[in-house]
Design goal:
mainly alpha, about 0% strand
Length: about 55
């Protein structure tokens, strides 16, 4: 149950972050920022899968 609450909190934070970026910077900048962050996150996940600790 605690993990579910953590996931919901993360999802809510993500939605708020995207809405704030959209309100402050516009749609194009928001897509660029979120796209770059997703690429970096995918890189981290790929590195963790390829070479686990």
């Amino acid at each position: 149950m605690i993990r579910l609450c953590g996931y919901l909190f993360g999802l809510s934070y993500l939605a708020l972050y995207v809405l704030c970026c959209h309100a402050l910077l516009g749609l194009a900048a928001t897509l660029v920022i979120v796209g770059v962050q997703l690429l970096v996150a995918a890189g981290f996940i790929y590195i963790k899968i390829r070479a686990p600790d």
